[in-house]
């Protein structure tokens, strides 16, 4: 809900004279003020300037030259000033890798790097493409390859009853059978806001009762999502601090779906849970931190958005109650919860753990419409041999890997589907015992 949504069709992305960038280093000084650290390099002229949060020299450079795109040495992102957003383009890959290698050491091209490359090349949001643009050549090529795989050549002309080699569609019954038999060893779960609705947490985008609608009315904002913009936070932190008074995150409890994911870990099946949610209910449901990737951060901690120094979330809450702005004693910028604002990069754990998906034998997608990138690229990372189960109120039509012969769609409310699955798996009693144990520490501390 707070994810950065970089564009993949920025018209200002041009082929670069890559060799010019190979001479540059990520720790070079700003041309105008000698700042080192939070600097950017212009992709048009390769000059290096500091960010808007230092002395704004890259912003001024753009105003003077109209050079559209710059690359951040801080978080390795590309920003287009003309589009006013982050951009992703395979044209910039070598430049990105050059500075990545300098900053973190040479990349070992494992599954993780291959996945990042694939996300950059695929137009995952083809339904949202402007002016009806067609999908990328890469995706078209993949589509044709999938068609060849789905319909074997010899089955096209084979007599009736012969050559029927097409794999039958994966079913709910097969999902249950494979779970009961222990076939699955590595399960990854991708979750969205739908799994927290029954906990009482308001959604963001409902027209009348959603959080954005409420914020729009309260603050008279044309774009209520702006309250989660990092630029807005720096200029008017009191808006977000005031918003935080409205939500007491501690009062919410995990849903049956949260507990189901924790139960998968209890049974030794869960390899990783990637979530878009910021409510931190996963920890209450028995999902350990090492099995969780909060792609958009969560409310379990606080930090300085500039120096990244960790802060106490309870102390942040105290400042919110006092209606005071807590500022970093080093950077003098407002402290914020560890959630990803618009304009911030996703945590490295998101990219570092992608290979878990590629190596899964079962993927479960629950309570997400999968429209926010880059999270919506994750289902494409499952191998052709993995099974995928989608639990949602409506099918996710724009992602190929959720609509193949190896996937099954279970339509309905998350909790209802999960509880029925537990019953059919004959796991109810063990699950209920697990849930009771997870609740004990909470009850004993009250």
What does this protein structure show overall?
Among the domains are: 18-107, 2-Layer Sandwich (Herpes Virus-1), CATH 3.30.40; 178-199 and 251-424, TPP-binding domain (Rossmann fold). Helices cover 34% and strands 13% of the residues. It has 17 helices and 14 strands. β7, α12 and β8 (292-294) form a beta-alpha-beta unit. Mean pLDDT is 81; it is low at 106-112, 121-164 and 442-446.
Question: What is the strand and helix layout of this fold?
Answer:
Layout: H1 18-21, E1 39-42, E2 48-50, H2 57-65, E3 69-72, E4 78-80, E5 85-87, H3 93-104, H4 111-121, H5 137-150, H6 153-157, H7 172-181, E6 187-191, H8 211-219, H9 230-235, H10 237-244, H11 256-266, E7 270-275, H12 281-284, E8 292-294, E9 297-303, E10 310-311, H13 313-322, E11 336-339, H14 348-352, H15 354-358, E12 362-366, E13 387-392, E14 407-411, H16 414-425, H17 428-444
Parallel strand pairs: 6-7, 6-12, 7-8, 12-13, 13-14
Antiparallel strand pairs: 1-2, 1-3, 3-4, 4-5, 9-10, 9-11
Key descriptive features of the protein:
histone deacetylase activity, NAD-dependent; Herpes Virus-1; 446 residues; six-stranded parallel beta sheet; metal-binding; disordered C terminus; NAD; alpha/beta; Rossmann fold; 13% strand; zinc; globular; five-stranded antiparallel beta sheet
């Amino acid at each position: 809900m707070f994810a950065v949504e970089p564009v993949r069709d920025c018209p200002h992305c041009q082929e670069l004279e890559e060799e010019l960038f190979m001479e540059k280093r990520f720790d070079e000084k700003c041309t105008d003020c000698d700042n080192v650290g939070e600097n950017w390099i212009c992709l048009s002229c390769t000059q290096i300037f500091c960010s808007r949060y230092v002395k704004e020299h890259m912003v001024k450079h753009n105003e003077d030259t109209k050079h559209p795109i710059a690359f951040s040495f801080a978080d390795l992102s590309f920003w287009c000033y003309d589009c006013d957003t982050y951009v992703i383009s395979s044209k910039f890959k070598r430049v990105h890798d050059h500075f990545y290698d300098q900053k973190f050491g040479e990349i070992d091209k494992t599954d993780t790097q291959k996945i990042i490359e694939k996300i950059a090349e695929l137009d995952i949001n083809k339904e949202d493409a402007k002016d009806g643009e067609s999908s990328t050549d890469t995706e078209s090529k993949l589509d044709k390859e999938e068609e060849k795989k789905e319909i074997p050549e010899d089955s096209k002309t084979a007599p009736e009853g012969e050559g029927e080699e097409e794999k039958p569609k994966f079913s709910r019954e097969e999902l249950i059978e494979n779970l009961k038999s222990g076939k699955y060893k590595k399960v990854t779960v991708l979750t969205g806001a739908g799994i927290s609705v029954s906990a009482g947490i308001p959604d963001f985008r409902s027209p009348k009762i959603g959080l954005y609608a409420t914020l729009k009315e309260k603050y008279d904002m044309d774009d209520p999502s702006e309250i989660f913009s990092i630029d807005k936070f720096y200029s008017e932190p009191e808006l977000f601090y005031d918003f935080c008074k409205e939500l007491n995150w501690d009062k919410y409890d995990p849903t049956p779906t949260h507990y189901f994911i924790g139960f998968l870990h209890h049974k030794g099946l869960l390899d990783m849970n990637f979530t878009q949610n910021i409510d931190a209910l996963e920890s209450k449901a028995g999902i350990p931190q090492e099995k969780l990737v909060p792609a958009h951060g969560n409310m379990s901690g606080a930090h300085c958005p500039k120096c990244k120094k960790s802060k106490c979330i309870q102390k942040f809450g105290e400042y919110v109650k006092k209606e005071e702005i807590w500022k970093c004693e080093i950077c003098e910028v407002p402290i914020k919860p560890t959630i990803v604002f618009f304009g911030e990069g996703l945590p490295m754990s998101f990219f570092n753990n992608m290979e878990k998906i590629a190596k899964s034998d079962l993927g479960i997608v629950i309570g997400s419409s999968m429209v926010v990138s880059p999270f919506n690229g994750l289902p494409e990372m499952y191998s052709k041999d993995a099974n995928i189960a989608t639990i949602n109120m409506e099918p996710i039509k724009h992602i190929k890997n959720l609509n193949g012969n190896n996937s099954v769609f279970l339509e309905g409310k998350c909790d209802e589907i999960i509880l029925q699955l537990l019953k059919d798996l004959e796991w109810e009693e063990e699950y209920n015992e697990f849930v009771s144990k997870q609740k004990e520490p909470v009850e004993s501390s009250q």
